[in-house]
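Researcher: Re-running this chain for the archive, since the previous output was lost when a drive failed. Same request as before.
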Amino acid sequence: MPDSLLEVQDLGIRFGGLHAVRDVTASLPAGQITAIIGPNGAGKSTFFNLISGFYQPTSGRIRFAGEDITRLKTHEVVSRGIARTFQTTTIYKELTVLEGVMIGHRVRTRAGLFDALLRTGRERRDQAESHAGAMRALERVGLAAQAHLPAGALTQEGQKRVGIAMALASDPRLLLLDEPAAGMNPEETVNLMALIRELVAGGLTVALVEHKMSLVMGLADGIVVLHHGQKIAQGTPQQVSRDPAVVEAYLGSHAHGGQMGQAEPGQHGGEASHA
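Model: Regenerated C-alpha cells:
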C-alpha cells in the first residue's frame, strides 16, 4: 500500500451557518489517482479549495508530505508541491501557448518587480528558467510543437492540456484536476485519460473531481465520496459503486434516473455556490 502523500483530518469549513465541508478525514496515496465524487453541491470543489489554500478551514488539519500546511497561503501551498486546474479552462487565450505556461512557472522564481523593470541578471535567469520549465511541461502534455500558437486557436482538448501544463510548470508532486473532462467529447476524454495515466507513471500523484463516471471508473485507483459536505465512503471503484450509502446519495439527487455522477437534464455538472 503506497504511503499517503496528503492527509486531511476532521476537515471542515462554514460559510455563515452552512457547513460546505464537515469533518472529512481522508488520505491521498502517493503515486495513485484518487477521484473525489458526489452529487452536485456535495462540497467537492470546496474540498479542493481547502487543500490548495484558496479557502482557510474553520476546523481540522491538512498534512502534505508530513508537513502541516493547514494555514498556508495559496502561493506557499504551490511552492510545497501542490498545483491545480479549475472547472473552467483558465488560460490566457490571447497569449501563445508557451507564454501562458511560463506564467505557471513564474511562481517558482525569485525575481520581483524591481528586477523586471531593470532587467537584472536575476530576472534574465528567471526568464530563461521559466522558458525551459514551460517547454518541459508542454513536452509532458504533448504540446511542444504548438508552443508558439495562440492558446485560443487550440481545440477544447488542446486548451485543457495547456491548463494542465500551466499546473505542471510549477513542478508539483500532487496535481488537483477539477472536472478535467468537462465539455470534452468521448474521444477527447479517452485521450485525456491516457495523458493522466502517463503523468502518474512519471511519478505524479493525481486527485480529480469529475462527473463523468466512465472516466472515474476507468481511471481512478481509489474514490472518496462526498455528500452534503461529508465523506460517506472511500475505497476502490468496485467497492464504492456497491456501497449502499453511495447508491442512495446518487439516486436521491437524481430522481429522474440520472446515472451516478451525471447531471440531470438542465444542469451543467457544476457545483452549487460554495460547493
